[in-house]
Specification:
With 375 residues, the chain is of the alpha/beta class. 27% of the residues lie in helices and 24% in strands. The strands form six sheets. The chain has a five-stranded parallel sheet. Strands 16-17-20-19-18 form a five-stranded antiparallel sheet, sandwiched between helices. Strands 1-2-3 form a three-stranded antiparallel sheet, with no helix packed on it. The protein starts with a helix and ends in a 12-residue tail after the last helix.
Length: 375
C-alpha cells in the first residue's frame, strides 16, 4: 500500500542517517530523560511531536460500530452510515464512503459545511454531496446515541422535526485534541495549557530551552505540512542555526470531490476585519483543461489589497485544487501583485493557467472570458 511504502522509505532514511528508532510509548522522566517501557533514554535536546487524537463526544456508548477518522481508514463498508461533523475530515470520509456505494448522511451543528470556509467555495461540494449522500443536515444537533442490536440509533435536535434514524455505522469527526497531557510533561518542567497544547516561541522552543515542540500539539492549524515545516525548523535551531517560524500563510486543502483549497486571507475574514480588497475569479467552465476532464464545476479566486493590488488570499475549487494552491501561497509570500501573476506565462491547456486568468480578471485584461466592466 501507499502508507507501507512511505513507512518503509522512512525506515530506510533513518538507517542511512544512523538514527535509532525506538518503538513504544514515551513519557518524560526528567528534564533530560524519557521512559519508553522499561528503558530510559537520555537526550541533550528533545523535539515533542506527540500529535493529537480524535475528539470523542461525551455520552457516546462504547460500541465498535461508532468509529473515529482512524477507524474509518479500515474500510468495512456498512449499508448506512452517519458522519457526525461537517468539517474537512468528516467530508473527506463521507466522500470516500459515498463513492464506494454506502448510503451516507452528514450532520453538522453549524449552519453550513466546513465552517470558516468561504461559502462560495463550499457550494460546488454541497451540490455534489447532495446527489451522492442520503441526507445532509446542518444547524442540527445530535441529541442522543443508542446502541441497539440492529444498529446505532441517533436522535436529532433541529428547527424542523427530524425522526431518529438507525445506522450500521457512525463516524465521529468533530475535531482533534492535542496529546500534551499524555506525555508526563510536568516531569520535564514543560508547560502544558488546560486544553493540552504546549506553548512555544517562534523557534519552536517550549519554556524549557532545550525542549522543542511542533505540530498539532502546539496549536492550529493541525496540518501535516505545517508540522513538517516546524519540525525541520526546530531541528535546525537545536543544531545552532538562527531560524524562526516566519511563514506568512499556511495552505489548507479539503481532499473531497471536488477538492477545495485556500490560502491567506478569506473573504469572510477580510470582511470581518474591515480590509479593503478586490477580487478576481475565473470559472472553470471556460477552461479547456477542465472541460476535457469532464469537471467544469470548479473555479479559481484571488483576493488583492485594494491599494497595492498585492495578493492577500486565494482559493481553488476543483480536481487537483491542492496542487494549484501552492502557486498562490508563493505569490503571497513573495509579495506579488496581480500583474506579476497575469504576466507570468502559464502552460496551456492546464488548470494552472486559471490562476493567471483570475489575476487578469481582477486587472480587467482577461481575454478568455467576457466580464462586463462595473459602472
Amino acid at each position: 500500500s501507499v502508507v507501507k511504502k512511505l513507512v518503509s522509505g522512512l525506515s530506510v532514511l533513518a538507517k542511512q542517517r544512523k538514527i535509532e528508532v525506538i518503538h513504544g510509548e514515551g513519557t518524560f522522566a526528567s528534564t533530560h530523560e524519557i521512559s519508553v517501557g522499561v528503558r530510559r533514554v537520555s537526550f541533550a535536546h528533545c523535539i515533542i511531536a506527540a500529535g493529537s487524537e480524535a475528539v470523542r463526544l461525551p455520552g457516546l456508548p462504547d460500541d465498535p460500530r461508532i468509529i473515529d477518522s482512524t477507524g474509518a481508514l479500515e474500510i468495512d463498508l456498512p449499508k448506512r452510515m452517519l458522519v457526525i461533523g461537517g468539517g474537512i475530515i468528516g467530508l473527506e470520509m463521507a466522500t470516500v464512503y459515498a463513492a464506494l456505494g454506502v448510503q451516507v448522511s452528514i450532520v453538522e451543528l453549524m449552519d453550513g459545511l466546513i465552517p470558516g470556509c468561504d461559502r462560495d467555495l463550499v457550494k460546488p461540494l454541497e451540490k455534489r454531496l447532495a446527489k451522492q449522500c442520503e441526507r445532509i443536515m446542518v444547524s442540527t444537533k445530535v441529541a442522543k446515541v443508542e446502541s441497539l442490536k440492529e444498529g446505532i440509533r441517533v436522535s436529532f435536535e433541529a428547527a424542523q422535526l427530524i425522526e431518529a434514524q438507525v445506522y450500521d455505522k457512525v463516524l465521529v469527526a468533530v475535531g482533534r485534541a492535542p496529546n500534551g497531557k499524555r506525555i508526563n510533561a510536568e516531569a520535564a518542567g514543560v508547560t502544558v495549557n488546560d486544553r493540552g497544547f504546549i506553548p512555544v516561541d517562534p523557534q519552536m522552543r517550549t519554556n524549557v530551552s532545550h525542549i522543542f515542540a511542533i505540530g498539532d500539539i502546539v496549536g492550529q492549524p493541525m496540518l501535516a505540512h505545517k508540522a513538517s515545516h516546524e519540525g525541520k525548523l526546530a531541528a535546525e535551531v537545536a543544531h545552532g542555526e538562527k531560524r524562526a517560524f516566519d511563514a506568512r500563510v499556511i495552505p489548507s486543502v479539503a481532499y473531497t470531490d471536488p477538492e477545495i483549497a485556500w490560502v491567506g486571507m478569506t473573504e469572510t475574514e477580510a470582511k470581518a476585519r474591515g480590509v479593503a480588497y478586490g477580487k478576481g475569479a475565473f470559472p472553470w467552465v471556460a477552461s479547456g483543461r477542465s472541460l476535457s476532464l469532464g469537471r467544469d464545476d470548479g473555479f479559481t479566486k484571488l483576493l488583492f489589497d485594494a491599494q497595492t493590488h498585492r495578493v492577500i488570499g486565494g482559493a481553488v475549487v476543483g480536481p487537483n485544487a491542492g496542487e494549484l494552491i501552492a502557486e498562490i501561497g508563493l505569490a503571497i509570500e513573495m509579495g506579488c501583485d496581480a500583474a506579476d501573476i497575469g504576466l507570468t506565462i502559464h502552460p496551456h491547456p492546464t488548470l494552472s493557467e486559471t490562476v493567471a486568468f483570475a489575476a487578469e480578471a481582477f486587472e480587467g485584461t482577461l481575454t478568455d472570458l467576457y466580464i462586463p466592466k462595473k459602472k
